[in-house]
Amino acid sequence: MSFKNQIQRRRTFGIIAHPDAGKTTLTEKLLLFGGAIQEAGAVKNNKVKKSATSDFMEIEKQRGISVATSVLAFLYRDRKINILDTPGHKDFAEDTFRTLTAVDSVIVVVDVAKGVEEQTEKLVEVCRMRKIPMIVFINKMDREGKDAFDLLDEVEQKLGLNVTPLSFPIGMGYDFKGIYNIYEKNINLFSGDNKKNIEETIAFDDIENPGLEKIIGAKAANELRDNLELVNGVYPDFDKELYLKAEQQPVFFGSALNNFGVRELLDCFIDIAPQPQPKMAEERLVRPEETELSGFVFKIHANMDPKHRDRLAFIKVVSGTFERNKLYLHVRQGKKLKFSSPNAFFAEKKEIVDISYPGDIVGLHDTGNFKIGDTLTEGEILHYKGIPSFSPEHFRYINNADPLKSKQLNKGVDQLMDEGVAQLFTLEMNNRKVIGTVGALQFEVIQYRLEHEYGAKCSYENFPVYKACWVEAKDSKSEEFKEFKRVKQKFLAKDKRNQLVFLADSQFSLQMTQQKYPNVKLHFTSEFN
Ligand code: G4P
């Protein structure tokens, strides 16, 4: 198969959802369709259970499992599909944001009863900002839930999307009979009482056909006709170009658990979802068809076993091919590296591969060379954009609790930050180090890992911060900026990339600062140009 065909057949995407909406179940059903697994239950559920929130070792164990499900690849209708895992748990939101830099599209799962939930809002916002094409899957239609039109409204309003339904439910919960597939123009009917299987798929391109009554009964037939008329009147026709530009989002209804509406979703996804896309580097736009390799690290997974300290760095291939035992340039370090056992992912297994193509994810064993955002090339100096840091939610001073081990502590903190476990800020005023995390749990994880992996001890001290904002001065020589730096000295720090950060202690002080220094721009992510 030609290089070009290899690119065209790849679809790399992520499924995003609030925990419990059905992401794991849907993933598993997609793998079943791809024949990549034989039975349900094969994909380990790597979500962090609510009950485990105080047990961080449990979480780390589950993070361990998630190595296996970080990338799940399978073939379907001759397409190579790569699903990238995106943890829904809010403590790992940063992981998910970074993973979204490596996908070409996403499927958003919404629970029919709960509607749009908080985590979904945040993740979709990131996708909207990055113009990632999205398909929405409304799940759990076998349960009583919200009215379909109300849900479509909610998705539009809360997620800021422009939706158009490509399927429509016939009934819901107890009365759920099946789904009219607007995209394929057919009806899928549920079987009998247990609603576990699709009874049959009936081609039905004319909804006015009186045969509809025979299939679903007069009441449901009339209701469906009315609903479809409303759909026609209210929602625009599906437009693939708009979907690809992230300006329109098709919506499917179904039940992942019962395998209902999943094949329709997958078939449509295969038809419309984008192949690997060009990516902007600081230097230039890089196209997948270019023959020379380039790729970037979007995730680093540490081995929790202290006897095996290696880590797995996940690289998304952007252009060219990644080949085993070939020398590549590690751009940040300016050194050449080769990899004798690059891992590729298939279903829930990983195996050594000789060649990978744009859109693929390669796992590289690493002993500390890689940081999130690092680029590999065949010699060109390229830096990929779009792996920003977001403001952490929790901040604490980190102190060295064993003066004899300060070297170990610094090394450990450095490496954990490279992995993206948390963010480090160094205060301008006194050089004290502050750690910022998305979830409070990460502090325990860091303390535990520093002790067990690096032999260092740390303690924490509270440091009340409302938000970290990255500072951009319109004119760094202006009196305004000088005054800002002088007055706010206590609240200024540098991040790992030496960017200036303002640590606002309250929403009020943030607002006041913005008003007082209008030419000092405060950004909530580290990438703003
Ligand atoms: P997540 O990865 O998004 O967190 O969700 P997950 O797939 O684990 O699903 C969360 C719960 O919702 C699971 O039940 C799952 O069986 C159920 N579920 C998923 N899809 C459907 C659906 O279409 N209909 C119905 N009725 N339920 C669905 P659980 O009891 O929490 O876990 P389990 O014991 O069944 O694994």
TrEMBL record:
Residues 8-277 form the Tr-type G domain. It is found in: Cytoplasm. Keywords: Cytoplasm, GTP-binding, Nucleotide-binding, Protein biosynthesis. It comes from the Bacteria. Transmembrane segments: none annotated. GTP binds at residues 85-89, 139-142. One of its GO terms (biological process) is regulation of translational termination. InterPro entries: EF-G-like_DII (IPR053905), EFG_III/V (IPR035647), G_TR_CS (IPR031157), P-loop_NTPase (IPR027417), PrfC (IPR004548), RF3_C (IPR032090), RF3_dom_3_sf (IPR038467), RF3_GTP-bd (IPR041732). GO terms for molecular function: GTP binding; GTPase activity; translation release factor activity, codon nonspecific; translation release factor activity, codon specific. GO terms for cellular component: cytosol. Its main location: cytoplasm. The keyword Cell cycle does not apply. The keyword Cytoplasm applies. Belongs to the TRAFAC class translation factor GTPase superfamily. Classic translation factor GTPase family. PrfC subfamily. HAMAP family: Rel_fac_3. PANTHER family: PEPTIDE CHAIN RELEASE FACTOR RF3. Increases the formation of ribosomal termination complexes and stimulates activities of RF-1 and RF-2. It binds guanine nucleotides and has strong preference for UGA stop codons. It may interact directly with the ribosome. The stimulation of RF-1 and RF-2 is significantly reduced by GTP and GDP, but not by GMP. This is Peptide chain release factor 3. It comes from Arenibacter certesii. The lineage of its organism: Bacteria, Pseudomonadati, Bacteroidota, Flavobacteriia, Flavobacteriales. The gene is prfC.
